[in-house]
Structure formats: C-alpha cells, structure tokens
Amino acid sequence: MSDKVSLSLTINGAQHALTVAPERTLLDVLREELRMTGTRRGCDAGDCGACTVLVDGLPMLSCLSLPARLGGRDIRTIEGVESGGELHPVQRALVQHGAVQCGFCMSGIVLAAKALLARNPSPTLDEVRHALGSNVCRCSGYARVVEAIASVGGRP
Amino acid sequence: MRYAEPETVEEGLALLSTHDDARCLAGGASLVSRMNAGQVAPAMLVSLHRIDELATTTESAEGLWLGAMSIHRAVATEARLRGAMEVVRSAASQLAHPAIRNMATLGGSLCLADPKTELPAALVAASARVEVAGPAGRRSLPVEQLLVGAFQTSLGKGELLTRVFLPRGLGGAVGHHLRFSRVSADYPTVSVSLVLAMDGETCSHARVVLGSCGPVPLHVDAADAVLVGSRLEARDVAEAGRLLVQASAPLDDVRGSAEYRRMLIPRLLGRALSQARELAHV
Ligand SMILES: Cc1cc2nc3c(=O)[nH]c(=O)nc-3n(C[C@H](O)[C@H](O)[C@H](O)COP(=O)(O)OP(=O)(O)OC[C@H]3O[C@@H](n4cnc5c(N)ncnc54)[C@H](O)[C@@H]3O)c2cc1C
Ligand code: FES
Ligand code: FES
Prior knowledge:
heterodimer, A: Ubiquitin-like (UB roll), DNA polymerase, domain 1, 5 strands, 16% strand, B: alpha+beta, Uridine Diphospho-n-acetylenolpyruvylglucosamine Reductase, domain 3, Enolase-like, domain 1, 5-stranded antiparallel β-sheet, 4-stranded antiparallel β-sheet, 14 strands, binds flavin-adenine dinucleotide, binds FE2/S2 (inorganic) cluster
C-alpha cells in the first residue's frame, strides 16, 4: 500500500496542486498527470537527458526527481520556453542550422542550452559541448546542434 | 511506500528505525533509477533534503567538514578546497555529467559505494574521515573503514552518514584527479586521485588511489613509498605502477577488459603525476 503525498508544483510559472504516490517521478507526473508530453522519457535512468527540465534555472533529470521534494521550486519545461508564440533564440537557431532530425532529444537539449546561455551568454564550442554532456542524440547530429547553440551567443 | 521529510538528524534516525526496509534518499540519482527499474522498492523513504545540518560546510584550523547532502556542483565550486583537499574538488568537477552533478551528493556517493565512481577514491586520497549517526550516538571513522566492498558499506542498521572531514594536509601539497573515459560524460574506465608534495625535484609526499580497479578504492602503501624520495623518473613511476597493477582486481566490463585496465594503470599514473607536479611548481 502506498502513502499519497499532496503537493503544489510551480511549473512554467503556474501552480499545480497534486496528490501522488511518493515513488512517482516528476517525469511520470508531467507526462501522465499533467499531459505535458514535451518532456521525453528515454532511459528512466539518468543516461540520456531526454527528460531534462530546469529547476531554479539548473538542468536536472525529471526521471530521477521525486516531485514531493520540489514544492516551492521553479520548474521549467519545454512547454514554457517559447514566449508570446515566439520560439526561443535557441530553438530558432536549431531550425536555421537544420540541426533537428527526429527531434526526440531536443526538449532536453533546448533546456540545457537555455541554462548555459543564462550563465554564459557567449559560450565557446567546447563550453557548449560540455554543457550538453547530459544529452544523448540517437540521430547523432551533434556538430550542427553545437554550432547552432554557439551561434546564439555570437560565436561562429 | 511511505515517505517522510525529517528536519533533524535525530528525527531521521527515529524514522529509519520504524521500518526494517527504510532507506535514506539523498540526491536520488541512483536510488530513484533503481526504483524505476524495479530493482528496489523500499517500504519507507526518508528524504534527507530538509535537514540543514547535512547541507552545512564548516571550516576549522585542521580542515573542512562537508555535509553529506552537498551536491557535486557545490563541492566542485567550493573555493576553500585548496592544496591537498583539491583532489576532492577536482573529482567532483569532472565526474559524470552536468545534470547528475546538479543532483547527486557526496553522502550518496559514499553510501552507494559503487566501484566505478570517483569520489570514494578521491576521499581516500584526501585521508578523509566520515561521521556516522545512529541509535547509539555518533562515531567518526576513516573513509576506508566505511567502504568495505562493492556497493557495501560498514553502516549499521538505522545509521546515516552526516558529514565528511577533509584534513588540510601538508603545506605545499597539491591534490589532483584524472579520469580516463570513453566520452567525458561516461563513467571512467580508470580514475587516479592523488595528493603530491615536492621538495624541489624530489617527491616528499605521495598518496595515490585508483578507482574502477577493485571493489573498493585501491591504495597501496608500497607504491606511495616508491615515489617518496624519488625524482618521479620513468622507472620510479613504472615501479609504483607495477605494484598497483599487482594489487588491483580491475572491473571487466563494457568500458574495458580487466587486461586493458591493467595496461592503463601505469600510463595514467604517469600522466596524473606529471600534471600534479606542474601544479605543485606553480
Ligand atoms: C547516470 C549516472 C551517471 C553517473 N556517473 C558517474 C561518474 O561518471 N562518476 C562518478 O563518480 N559517479 C557517477 N554517478 C554516481 C553519482 O555521482 C552518485 O554517486 C550517485 O548518484 C549517488 O548519489 P545520490 O546523492 O544520488 O544518492 P542516492 O541515489 O539518493 O542514494 C544512494 C544510496 O546511498 C544511500 N544514502 C544516501 N545518502 C545517505 C546518507 N547520508 N546516509 C546513509 N545512506 C545514504 C541511499 O539510501 C542509497 O542506498 C553517476 C550516477 C548516475 C545516475
Ligand atoms: S529519461 Fe531521464 S535521463 Fe533518460
Ligand atoms: S534528433 Fe533524433 S535523437 Fe536527437
């Protein structure tokens, strides 16, 4: 038998009151309770980064996070990245560079890039590569992805 | 499954004693992953994130106490980890990948005791001690006595790790961590953590510890003894490497066969020593 935990999550600025079993991960809750399916499930083990969200601005893996611990924290998912119907500059750059193939890894990559650019507005290619260390792309088109993200900060 | 968020160590201990199958939850990176895979299903999860004491860093004349709930990112950016203690900062800043470093903790790394991971070896290199709280009070022990086997610690039932002490170490000593991995975000194939002090061109102190080379971090006194008093020439490094290889029981897995790891050990040792030597001369 499971205890249930009642909590309030702040996701993309909006409050969500939920009652969940404590072992349900943030990824489960986002996809299955809130139907925010932009956050992807790849491995459920911390290996792929498809489930990346930002918690207080830092990339974290929603598949390994228990929502019970995230009350009061600022959670951002891919659904909260565009503003006023406009794509985020990272998203625009990825499109312009033709960097997206099947797209499965992209929600995680966009959020990791957004977090990087917030700290370091003009990262080098190497800094971009390190910031994407958590994110695997099975289509493996990393070169254009890295170039696209670096271009946002004005690097070639 | 039951779930609790104690606010003090004492409350946490009381909760751990209520269930035979109660588990601490630190960063969750490994525990939640194992729960997702159906490998563990604790009856009671005791989350440690609200216990302020476990997230506190305190400095004393002898060294630094790091709380068990310090995340890798915080250890990696702790400017007071200088000199010999830098080996721990260096390991925390390189291990795994950014999202794991934002989540996983020092205490979780020690209590998981995974031979593939790097902080346990770095802490042995730093001559760290750990403090453990339990039903009978608190005790402190050298980190080697906590790590008793692969995925095995000497923690008793109902005990939890509260903090880790890093001694300042010898003046002039430097700490350094080198990992060799297939790609930078992967677990290392072999890692070398070391503390080194030089007196001119002569090595006056060395403590070398390897990861992924046995069930627990590999430290061989005789290998350190070969380096101390030497000028760290190729034959000294080769002899220390030979003693380490002889004592090793490397992992044999997808990242490398045991044979391959035995070949890596002396080469990585040489590289780590020359990098540390540069740091010692700056
Ligand atoms: C995908 C992935 C890649 C990784 N790559 C690397 C790598 O390259 N190098 C590396 O060094 N490490 C790596 N790690 C391991 C990581 O650094 C941590 O060691 C690990 O995740 C455990 O830390 P945690 O805080 O998440 O602990 P948890 O998962 O929360 O806990 C781990 C275990 O320790 C117990 N525990 C935790 N804290 C305490 C405490 N204070 N007292 C008593 N028991 C406690 C828990 O009950 C549990 O059994 C990786 C982990 C993952 C998931
Ligand atoms: S689904 Fe979370 S890291 Fe792969
Ligand atoms: S674009 Fe297909 S996984 Fe990255």
